[in-house]
Write a structure and sequence with these properties.
The chain is mainly β and 123 residues long. It is built from no helices and eleven strands.
């Protein structure tokens, strides 16, 4: 069992930066892929980024490549999403999730989810 709690969201101006944290409890987090998803009002939840259990491989949505960086520290049971050059279209609730096995970009494959943290980017 893995429990996930996101933090670090907030209000930022376009062009600014935010760092999201995903704090995990449970022994299996270090063996899971960690992903970040987001959901804007009236839209479906979309994939943002994911990182392999050992941190050795990452995957990003095209919309955030070159602006966002995913990382993790298994010793601290924590994952991160560094978001730079933020745009108004990045406004959404951001969710951390953990995946035992499956397709990294598919939300339905993830086994555990956090409650989400709001990110708002003003123009």
């Amino acid at each position: 069992q893995v429990q996930l709690v996101e933090s670090g969201g907030g209000l930022v101006q376009a062009g600014g930066s935010l760092r999201l944290w995903c704090t995990a409890s449970g022994r299996t987090f270090s063996r899971c892929v960690m992903g970040w998803f987001r959901q804007a009002p009236g839209k479906e939840r979309e994939f943002v980024a994911a990182i392999r259990s050992d941190g050795g491989s990452t995957e990003y949505a095209d919309s955030v490549k070159g602006r966002f960086t995913i990382s993790r520290d298994n010793a601290k049971n924590t994952g991160y999403l560094q978001m730079n050059s933020l745009r108004p279209e990045d406004t959404a609730v951001y969710y951390c999730a953990a995946l035992a096995t499956g397709r990294w970009s598919r939300a339905l494959d993830y086994d555990y989810w956090g409650q989400g943290t709001q990110v708002t980017v003003s123009s």
